[in-house]
Design a protein that fits this description.
The chain is elongated and about 165 Å long. The N and C termini lie far apart (173 Å). The longest helix is centred in the middle third of the chain and has 67 residues, at 57-123. By secondary structure, the chain is mostly helical. It has a domain at 19-123. It has helices spanning 2-5, 20-54, 57-123, 127-151, 163-183, 216-219.
Length: 220
């Protein structure tokens, strides 16, 4: 069959369209190329301008003719440059929109995943259990306050002292302090130098140098 009718040509898969980045790069290169052509036309026109000013006759007309041709070419390049700049703006705007859409999709996906995880975690919690936990904690804190208050009690201390008793006690202490200042230093606070010497012998009895009763021979 293939020999009679021939084999059908296999269709080649269509090449994928260029990405926005590739399209933007291509347009940018064309913009730079047209800008260089316009700048070259300006350079040539400046040279011809100087020659037109310094020449006369047919030479001047030839220079003017060449300048006219270069000016027409410059206008063509400027028109193409203007179109390329418009295409570049459209491609960049499309690329920006695509990038923004990708960021938006990623953000929405992340928020959706976080929402699902939060919903799953919330299922593990019960608001009634949280309230009960808070109530139990408050009761425990109150019990701890009662225990600390109980441990801080003092025993054997009279608690029926009034403000009048306190004032009388303070007045009495103040009177005792004034009496002490007037009479001088109490005897129990005096130094050993001011105290009388300790007796070394009993009355009517002689003692030796060690404070012991002297023997009859020593006494004589």
């Amino acid at each position: 069959m293939k020999r009679i009718f021939g084999s059908q040509k296999e269709e080649k898969p269509a090449a994928p369209p260029p990405s926005l980045k590739e399209a933007n790069d291509g347009v940018t290169n064309r913009v730079k190329a047209y800008e260089e052509k316009v700048n070259e036309c300006d350079r040539q026109l400046r040279v011809l301008k100087d020659k037109i000013k310094t020449t006369r006759g047919s030479a001047k007309k030839n220079y003017e003719k060449r300048a006219m041709e270069i000016l027409k070419r410059k206008r063509l390049y400027e028109s193409q440059l203007h179109q390329m700049l418009g295409q570049q703006f459209n491609v960049e705007q499309a690329q920006f929109s695509l990038e923004s859409a990708a960021v938006t999709v990623a953000t929405v996906g992340a928020m959706k995943e976080a929402n699902d995880k939060l919903r799953t975690k919330m299922k593990e919690l019960d608001i009634d259990d949280v309230d009960d936990l808070q109530d139990d904690f408050a009761e425990l804190m109150e019990d701890m306050d009662d225990i600390n208050e109980t441990l801080g009690r003092s025993y054997g201390v009279p608690d029926d002292i009034s403000e009048g008793d306190l004032e009388a006690e303070l007045d009495l202490l103040e009177d005792e302090l004034e009496d002490t200042v007037e009479e001088g230093t109490p005897s129990y606070l005096q130094s050993e130098e001011s105290l009388p010497a300790q007796p070394t012998e009993a009355p009517g009895e002689k003692v030796d140098e060690y404070g012991l009763p002297a023997s009859p021979t020593t006494a004589n």
